[in-house]
Design a protein that fits this description.
Blueprint lengths: L1 H22 L3 H15 L3 H10 L1 H13 L10 H10 L4 H24 L5 H24 L3 E2 L2 H15 L7 H6 L4 H7 L2 H12 L3 E2 L31 H9 L19 H15 L5 H16 L3 H5 L1 H7 L16 H13 L10 H15 L5 H18 L3
Antiparallel strand pairs: 1-2
Helix pairs in contact: 1-2, 1-3, 1-4, 3-6, 4-6, 4-17, 5-6, 5-7, 6-13, 6-14, 7-13, 8-10, 8-11, 10-11, 13-18, 14-18, 14-19, 18-19
């Protein structure tokens, strides 16, 4: 009985929040509803956020409010941004997914205002910084909690014995290894000497280790050019030896540098923050509903094409075909209001501009990666492919590889 009463209370507050978002310009009334919802959430946050994530009317009105009231939504005193910030700082993964659902629209509003009106939305920026710094904290905990584990001599002895048994018939050590005194797996197994295998294990164990940091990548030795090593050191033997491991150790590529916590977003760190934030959205896509992915595709269409000649050529039917109001399809609104229609009209006008949105190459890669996932969803395939096409035209225009 208690659960049913609380569930009814959650539904009432979510319906009330959805109505206030689009019908009221009074931020105090919106803040009052959010405070009441936060009080109720303190008892069972997961249940409230789960209901909110499935409440399509609330999610739709929240997106339309961000687009239709860009100077209010995302401002420093915006109660919605403060609510999203508090939700993401909790330990609930469901709460984080709820916030990530609205991040693409928030990023678009933030970038549009920045480039078209030179206005920084401090509330939106605070939410983006929260997501970024939370990821920094997570990676630091991961690095500190995981220690570097060396491969033991016993493990390498087993590997050497297994490799040596197949190579004992005709494989021998190379001349360079014999001269340098570094034993190889084939040589130690061919002689059948236990001492030789042990010496090889001791030598190899000092060179091979497992790195716990996710941003370091150590590729194996290669005998042909690749994207990791265009000019590798060629070897006549493909046996894993200490000399080859020394070459790997000396030329390890770093995929990305360690992240540093930030207190504000500057022009030099903006692309990094956007890259990490959009990467978190891509990671959570499998848990997000189809309507959230559709909103991402609509944002990507505008982000990739805004201000380019190829986008202006498609502008005739663009506003009608790819309007954010299409997200309202099959959504049952718990209220009726003319204010919502006016908000939708302002949202569509806001979503089109002639100034290019400048972002880094890594940010564009994250957007295209997410669109690749959306392209495999039956209901979003055409929309995602349209956005990917604009990304291809933009890459050609910017001469991106």
């Amino acid at each position: 009985e208690r659960k049913r009463e609380m569930s009814a209370e959650y539904a009432r507050l979510l319906d009330q929040l959805a109505e206030v978002l689009c019908t009221s310009d009074d931020e105090s009334s919106l803040g009052h509803v959010l405070d009441e919802l936060e009080t109720v959430s303190s008892e069972n946050l997961k249940a409230v956020v789960t209901d909110a994530l499935a409440h399509e009317a609330l999610c739709y009105t929240l997106c339309i409010r961000m687009l239709g009231k860009p100077t209010i939504a995302g401002a420093v005193d915006d109660p919605v941004c403060a609510w999203l910030y508090a939700l993401y700082r909790t330990e609930s993964e469901v709460a984080k997914r709820f916030v990530l659902r609205f991040v693409p629209v928030l990023v678009w509003v933030y970038l549009y205002q920045l480039h078209n009106h030179n206005r920084v939305l401090c509330g939106a920026e605070a939410v983006l910084l929260c997501i970024y710094n939370t990821e920094v904290e997570y990676r630091e905990r991961l690095d500190h909690s995981t220690t570097t584990t060396a491969i033991t001599s016993a493990d390498v002895s087993a590997i050497a014995a297994a490799e040596g048994s197949t190579a004992a018939a005709g494989t021998s050590a190379t001349a360079g290894e014999q001269n340098s005194g570094i034993p190889s797996a084939a040589a130690s197994s061919a002689t059948g000497s236990t001492a030789g295998a042990s010496a090889f294990a001791d030598s190899l164990a000092s060179h091979v280790y497992v790195s716990p940091t996710a941003h370091i990548f150590r590729p194996p030795p290669e005998s042909a050019p690749s994207i990791f090593r265009p000019h590798p050191h060629r070897s006549s033997s493909r046996t894993l030896t200490a000399s080859l491991l020394d070459q790997v150790e000396a030329s390890q590529p770093v995929i990305s540098a360690p992240l540093v916590a930030l207190s504000k977003v500057t022009s030099s760190t903006r692309n990094l923050v956007l890259e990490i934030v959009l990467h978190k959205v891509t990671q959570a896509m499998v848990f997000l509903p189809s309507r959230a992915l559709e909103a991402y595709c609509l944002v990507a269409l505008r982000l990739l094409g805004c201000g380019y000649a190829f986008d202006l050529q498609l502008h005739e039917g663009f506003r009608r075909k790819f309007s954010f109001s299409t997200l309202k399809k099959d959504v049952s609104l718990p209220f009726t209001s003319n204010d919502l229609e006016a908000l939708e009209e302002r949202a569509d006008k806001f979503s089109h501009g002639s100034i290019r949105i400048t972002v880094g190459e890594r940010v564009l890669q994250e957007v295209v990666s997410a669109l690749g996932y959306c392209a495999y969803q039956d209901s979003l395939s055409a929309l995602a492919r349209q956005a990917i096409g604009l990304g291809y035209l933009r890459a050609q225009s910017q001469l991106l590889p």
